[in-house]
Specification:
Distance between the termini: 28 Å
Radius of gyration: 19 Å
Strand content: 25-35%
Strand order of the largest sheet: 3-4-5-9-10-13-14-15-16-18
Largest sheet: 10 strands, mixed
Order of helices and strands: EEEEEHHEHHHEEHEEEEEEHHEEHEE
Oligomer: single chain
Structural class: alpha+beta
């Protein structure tokens, strides 16, 4: 999934197989990654480790000895996993079990941002979706379809207005039965922290790639391919370029129906995939889920309102299209493959 040239790095965006359904889980199969080491073509060093439930790749350029930079970046990723995972004992699971408690600044930051995006999207993104995710098998159980009555019962426990934050004390209170899932936002936040650690280590340029669903970079141009959302090995639909930005993608290709609409409890099926470009990974990650749930019209309007950019992949009447926010093609050099329409 990675191509290189002297001028740029090309990273193929795979789809987020767990954009809202438990990203911080067991490792997921994906395309091959380059192993640790130094590229003979430039001075970029790479290291790959399994963390946060997927393969994480960190690249550092311009450092004679990048070992400490790698350690700092992966420590940041591990810290988010240890704090916010639903797959093991963590600060987040303890908060869910107790229903209340003081939380760390990191959990508070993610929760506040999640609630902000939830309000802005009118619930299309919602960090309280955990009961629905768990009941449908999104946290390691068998996949199952809910009956209408079971879904209604679970929906009574879901809703971002059921969360209360006391900013003075850092306390969080959840309404009875409500539980938090940061699966649609934690990877982006982790990428932000890892990039911050790399800057602190003196890296002039770097990239953090978390399973190819959340990518952050600084100091270099990044060429991004938009993979076919329907056939994994098919040619890309499009490509674009970013610099000093975060990119996140959400789609349901590998497990159809796994991204749920928190407002209805039903699978989201409006678009094939949603990709967001933003200044911060925490924003791009949450918004990609929101756009996937909202669909093209409302989702792209939300991006423009929040100062982000992006596009959705659609197939209508047999025709493939990339529908983007206004000015995206010009700002990011969007190029579509033959047979794929570019719409703004």
């Amino acid at each position: 999934g990675v191509r290189r040239s002297a001028a740029s790095r090309s990273v193929s965006i795979a789809r987020s197989v767990a954009a809202i359904a438990g990203i911080l889980g067991p490792a997921l199969a994906g395309p091959p990654f380059l192993g640790p080491g130094r590229s003979p073509a430039d001075d970029t060093a790479r290291e790959v480790r399994v963390v946060m439930g997927s393969t994480a790749e960190v690249r550092v350029g311009g450092l004679a000895d990048p070992a400490s930079a790698f350690d700092a970046a992966f420590a940041a990723l591990a810290r988010v996993d240890d704090t916010m995972s639903l797959w093991k004992d963590s600060e987040l699971t303890r908060l869910n079990d107790a229903g209340h408690g003081r939380v760390s600044p990191e959990v508070l930051a993610v929760l506040r941002h999640a609630l902000d995006v939830a309000r802005a999207s009118r619930g299309a993104f919602d960090p309280t979706i955990e009961p629905l995710v768990r009941a449908t098998g999104g946290l390691g159980g068998p996949r199952r379809r809910l009956t209408a009555s079971a879904r209604r019962a679970l929906m009574a426990r879901v809703g971002f207005t059921r969360v209360r934050i006391d900013l003075a004390t850092g306390g969080v209170t959840l309404a009875p039965g409500t539980r938090l899932d940061f699966g649609g936002i934690a990877k982006g936040y982790a990428a932000d922290l890892a990039l911050e650690a790399l800057r602190g280590a003196g890296a002039p340029r770097a990239l953090v790639d978390l399973g190819e669903s959340s990518i952050g970079t600084f100091g270099e141009d990044l060429a991004v391919e938009v993979r076919d959302p329907e056939q994994r090995r098919a040619p890309p639909w499009a490509s674009f370029r970013v610099r000093d930005r975060a990119v996140s993608t959400s789609a349901g290709d590998q497990h159809p129906g796994h991204i749920l609409d928190p407002r209805t409890g039903l699978p989201s099926r409006g678009v094939l995939a949603a990709t967001v470009v933003a200044r911060a990974g925490i924003e791009a990650d949450a918004l990609s889920t929101a756009v996937y749930v909202l669909g093209a019209r409302e989702g792209l309007r939300l991006l423009e309102k929040r100062g982000a950019a992006g596009f959705v992949l659609e197939r209508r009447n047999g025709r493939r299209s990339v529908r983007a926010t206004r000015g995206f093609a010009r700002a990011y050099g969007l190029v579509t493959a033959p047979g794929v329409r570019s719409l703004e």
